[in-house]
Structures
1.
Amino acid sequence: MSVGQKKEDELPLRILRSGLEVNSLVLLRGGRTALEWYREPYRKGVPQLLYSLSKSVTSIAVGIAYDQGLLTPDDPVIGFFPDKMPLLAERSEYLPEMKVRHLLSMTAGHEGDIYPAVVSQRDWAAAFLAQSIERTPGTHYRYSTPSTYMLSAIVERVSGLNLVDFLMPTLFGPLGIAKPVWETCPLGVTAGGMGLSLPTEDVAKFGQMLLEGGTYRGRRIVSESYIRAATSEQSDNRSGVPAERTDSAQGYGYQFHLCRFGAYRGDGSFGQLCLVSPGHDLVAAANCAFPSMAKLQTLLNWIFELACGEEIVAGKTTGADVRTAEAAGIYGTAENGTFELPFEPNVLYVVDDNPAGLRSLALKPTASGFDLTFDYGDGDERSGKLPFDFARALEAESVFVKDLMRHRQKVVTSVEPSSEDPAGRRLKLHYIETPYVVTYTIRPAEEALLVRFEINVSFGYKSYEAYARRS
């Protein structure tokens, strides 16, 4: 390391050189920012979809409601939903035994994955209560996003407010977090277990509040006793976890995974992270695009290496090293500032049937690039125009999915050659509020264009090919 350089500064270069798909990373040591890094084109202040990291925020909402006397962990779940109870003959015998603490600790008693059965219905709470419960609540760990949804629904019922409005004066506001977007079920109840978006630096603030035992800058947010309970082992999550994912087999608290070294974390799909390590006086917040959550263990290992004082990577590192590494492969550049395109301007290309429902494409030249119009049919909010520049990336807005819903969101566009066909072009779309990076590869085919769609991470289809023909 160079003189005056911190060990934390080595971590971004190690991430970039390894190809680990980390988009943003904030480290706090002793309550101060030790590292704040964003891979291009991601940046500070842009909300990031947290997926299941939302669960940990919902847990704190329950703790705040408990502190206010609105509920207790031992309250029966059915007591909050007298209007949604299944018929007596269809009611699981264990349902009356299910308590709030069982929802918090993922021990509601379900053996299987009830998520598809619950979210396929309009009324998620009624669907949850109608599910078969095979185990005595409190005896069997089963990770369950619908359980966290029920916690959100309970807080909304006892407070009379939606979850975001409940948390604005009690959590988000005191932490200096602007009112966030949090997705909802079809009836408008906050999803709880998913769908919250926060900037990376705000996730770090949340982690610092946890580290300080429920206070932030001297203000009490949630009781220290609740933090202790939430971050202590309440259920055993060790069964079936691969040996290489050691920090996912250390026990489970109230919507927090316990880790080595007395640390704990909230996490979400594709590697969203809020890690708190009291023994190291450390908070780490990250947003990633991991195709496998096994890669989260790699990131955790590196953070713990740093926290324990081990060297991160040998050799001298400079800011220029990081900038060079992160720029490599992000955007293509056009020779002489222009590309020949495989499709004709001002011509409508009708796209064959495809999983996305894309109907047609049309290109209109601009001074330094082109606008590409995507048409998904009448009334489809995804239809619209995106700008592309031959020499640089452009930022625009487009409608694309987040967790449960489509949202108008920021997207960074770029164009580059196709590695497969000299006549083809790759159009890249970085949806910088999510992990999603979409690539359209367009190349000429006989009397048509061949369009290939690819997305780096997804819960659904990850690619398709379709021909596009002149109308």
2.
Amino acid sequence: MGLGWFGAPEHNRWLAEETHALLRYARAAKVPAGFGWIGTDGVVDTSHPVELWITGRMTFAFSLGALLGIPGCRRYADHGVRALSRVMRDYEHGGWYSAVRHELDDDGHGIPVDADARKECYQHAFVLLAAATATAANRPGAHELLLDAMEVQNRYWWDDTYGLPIESYAADFTDPENYRGINAAMHTVEAYLATADVTGDVTWLTRAVQIIDFAVNVQARAHDWRLPEHYDTKWHPLLDYNRDAPAHPFRPYGVTPGHGLEWSRLTVQARAALVARSLPTPDWMLEAAEQLFDRARTDGWRVDGGPGFVYTTDFDGNPIVHERMHWVVCEGVSAAAAIRQALLDDGRGEIDVEHYEHCYRSWIDYAEEFLIEAPGVWTHELNQANELSTRTWEGHPDIYHALQMTLAARMPVWPTVGQALSEGLLDRPDRPAPAPDQQRGQVRRRGLFGRG
């Protein structure tokens, strides 16, 4: 085995222990309305409402725990499905509230923090991801939730004019926002890939590839692999957007290297999905994923005198916000694992993937040294000196990025993690599930849907 960590039993043991620890810690987030924001003291911070993106992410996480066979995770996944199905739903206008109060009304429904708050694509993407993953785990009510989430996506979020999602609406799904964002588009891709795997409907995969083509093959390529985050309604880049709010948690100014890493992973996952289905596969995808990864690494990692990824840069690669966000290194680890395996699946040799193995080891070591306070407890933000910072994030809102990081090296590139776990592919990263047209009926299915 030498210096290799991939497939090493003790490394997989470390990853598995952290998977279990994260899921144990996340139980503290459970509140009647869904999942709350865990504060610095390890209990829910009630100054934050119950937010849709956190409840969606936690439902996704506990559904993965259920698929892994970790006792207790089923009831937390089921709690999340119930919260998304009943509590956070907007029964008047459709879709889901962005945030509700911790207490429920007399009918067991959520009370919106602001009944006039806008509905957001970003948050709805996590409803779809949670529903698809809970369906893969065969959780009660997940199938119906997935059907509802798909219908809302089709009705409101997918814009056929541009083949890209709309950013937000007024509460009643009127007045689309005069803005489009690559962050919401990215998480829509993730949710669409999971939905395609669970339902077997390639429409969702086709849409995901359309979004990736625009973001990666058009915009990132045109900007030397530094992907613009912000756009007008015709998807023209707004390079100066939020220049006066550079550390914004969802719409920061400039380039976000962590998103470059995330897009690189999604690109190889979408490519693998096309290959597995014997669908036409653009020849740019693997090369573009490597370019995105390398740009994010060279612009973001150890560029200001110390270890860690900076949060943002300008379009020349100069650091803007020096804080280190935990999610960025998690996405770096996940991307390194996915691209490495994608290259091996494509016939490359071990020497061709050595660079990704080095990045994987370096970034996990960084997380172990600076981010993991205790098993399952990850500091979400550090300053330039790798000391605790709360400029953008305070507390421990969710485990979504870290949990996926602990699974990345143990999973194939395709199918997406929930479906892969349901098909028994844990610790079989080089054995992707057979395409449906090759071995129809021989792959174990979950839920109402097959991938036919």
3.
Amino acid sequence: MVPARTDAVTCAGGSAHHERQELLIDHDHPDLDGDRHVLWEHATVLTGADAAPVPDGAVLVRGERILAVGTRRALAAAAPGSTVRADLDGAFLLPGLVDSHQHVATPPSVPYATAQLEREVYGGVTTIRVMADDLRVVAELARASAAGELPAPDIAFAAFFAGPSFFDDERVRVASAGYEPGTAPWMQAVDTHTDLAQAVAVARGTGARAIKVYADLAPETVGRITDEAHRQGLLVWAHGTVFPSGPSEVVAAGVDSVSHACLLGHEGRPIPASYAPPRQDIDLDRFRDRVPESVDTLLREMRRRDCVLDATLFVDAHTGTPTPRLSAAARITARAAELGVVVSAGTDFPTTPDDPFPAIHRELALLVEQAGFTPARALAAATVGGAAALGRSADLGRIAPGARADMIATAEDPTSDLSALRSITTTITRGRRLDRRGFDPRARARERTWRP
């Protein structure tokens, strides 16, 4: 899509940064006379970009795509007469949230997964990145979500590669039942003898968007996996340390994102030979006052390579008690953001079954409380950052012409206070409306019980 151009623009403040868009139209989709146009109006539109908010704004949607963004007056005049008018009652309209690190089917349970996904989408999450589960279940959930058959975020998922020594892990057994460990198309054991062209092609056939590189893989093997995955059009999402491969070796392999900020703390220290316990933890004393020079150099290289950091601070806080590992992970995340590394917001764990809101709310709060992000910057991690982690910056994480119509409406402004996310009234996913009042958080709490 060519860049959209701006029509009928009025300026306030005398500079491009403060320009207020009266009407922004996607000129790749000029036909505004088709059916099922919806004008989401009477909202302050927070586009997710650096542009100023659009007061008394509106978003014109056709099907699952955004056609135009601007003031209510301008869009009402441009929209066809058959347009459905959806009054948001003065809400704040912002891009849907992306959770860049989720698990919904290890072990596989459709009632558990659908209950979790329902809470996610009614809590404002419109896309999730599933980081390797039983893809027989996940692929069907992704299809049903895309088709509008169940209330759920859009689902992008990865197939899983690790060294053969990893595959006595119990999680592998339950997520690949019916296969010998390491032989399932979505969970493959890889070594120096593996035909990687075939292995990646088999993984690609599951519908995976990426290969997740997990553990017990040497640097040369991580590099070969990455090269072959990219050759076949897949992304590579890796753990920050892929024992015995250290963080800098993982990044040098060319992976697209690394998960778990705490794992980057292994940089500059001897790397354990295997993921299997007993495994030496990071040296927390190195992070008491600052990020060590070796980690700082690593982060600069990530910035140079456009490698996304999937921070997952919630991993070290989901028990409710802050830990020294959380402090180290937060310090690394803060420094990464300072250096210009794109940070995404992933959770890895759900909140407790009786919590009415998903874990992404807590992850964003941790980015503010522990890593020093502003609320707006934390929201960027869950929008433009999440889109970057998925390789979908062109159509996710922003409210703009041509982007997918994934948005949420809140009664209060979350860019000032993240607790305003709990005032969510409406989730719009692929142009479909879900009102928060239609969700009973107590109804399926038992089904959301975590099954380790």
4.
Amino acid sequence: MVYHTSNRKGALSDTIAAIATPAGRGGISIVRVSGSLCFQIAKQVTKQNLKPRYANFCSFYSHNRKNIDQGIALYFPAPQSFTGEDILEFHTHGSPVVTDHLLNSLFHFGARLARPGEFSERAFLNNKIDLSQAEAIADLIESTSLQAARNALSSLQGEFSKRINLLREQLIQIRCLVESSIDFSDEDISIVEPKSILNKLQDIQNTIKIIYSSAQQGALLQEGIKVALIGRPNVGKSSLYNKLIGKDAAIVTKIPGTTRDILCTDIVIDGLAISLVDTAGLHESIDLIELEGIRRTRKELDYVDHILLVSSNQDGLTKEEYELFNELPNGIQVTLIFNKIDLDLTPACIEQSNLGKIIRVSALTGEGIDLLIQHLRETAGFNIKEESEFSARRRHLNALQKTEAAVELTKAALTKGESEEIIAEELRQAQNYLGEITGKYYTDDLLGEIFSTFCIGK
């Protein structure tokens, strides 16, 4: 990890521009500009000196001096702006023709098209927001429920960062104490009191667990889980898919192999966001289209969080399905779904088997669907009664887990009487893992991965 990355900071000398509002027609569109050329561009477009932080009503002119539109122009001089640079906004009528023509003129005046998320990235690189706050901007835009939106706003306002920074400061204080002891090692002076430090580390671990629990709920609210329905043809996968999403999206027939491609629908059930995937029936086939659907199904299974292996309640788990179960990717939750209980009047229930949980349902009547939904929530760790306080992402959860593990190693080193150098190094690792969350430590690849998911203009 590095504290600063010069490659991405080098691009800050460019002036960037993009349409900040969604594509299509509307009442108003916003074209945003950030960089050192903003003042110059404002004069070229509006033919006047804009009053800072004031809604200036004016006409907008193209690079060939033709009148494009009239609207509101806003100018925010650095450093008191979102990106920390000069920022310019043109509020036009919501015609794609108008905004495209204006954007093209901005390119003639020296700006370039912004990359996805580049405005937020510049705000981060210019220390206006930290990395978790930048991610919260995208989370707020992408939120699928009111609670998820509230959590994202809380993170944007710094609630999550505040807790992480406080933890990090506590680790730094302990590390400074240990490193001071190293400085006095030749004088046979011991500053480190193992019992006192162990107590402080235990308090830190307890705090990490509390933050992790809330972050886990926040991540589930924001990102949800991806669930795939798989199985042999004609076991009712598509019927179950339609029942869960609440509409007839998948074609259902008695003809084997009706579903030949992957269907995916995003739903929210009791606050839990679920990306539900219906797949082609897995079986031996010589049909080229079916074979391609089967190939895509197997590839998709590497990217899901939970697999529902659907079988017929009348047949039980066949030899073919047992072999399929053993071929599934490791580390992914698998639940057996025995469908069509309406045919033999079996009651809906959840059972434990040597292969895991079995849930008996009827996609036709809806019996057992409530048990399935409850099971999905429980296995995901989602607790509808537990109020989350901020949004989070899986990378944050991973960083918190690594921090807790590093603190545990520090406690073990203290207990064993290891040298202060080893103890200090474990503390440094824990400190750095927390720094990854807020962006105290980052790589170009991490920034690229995060901001590439943003929309252009944000």
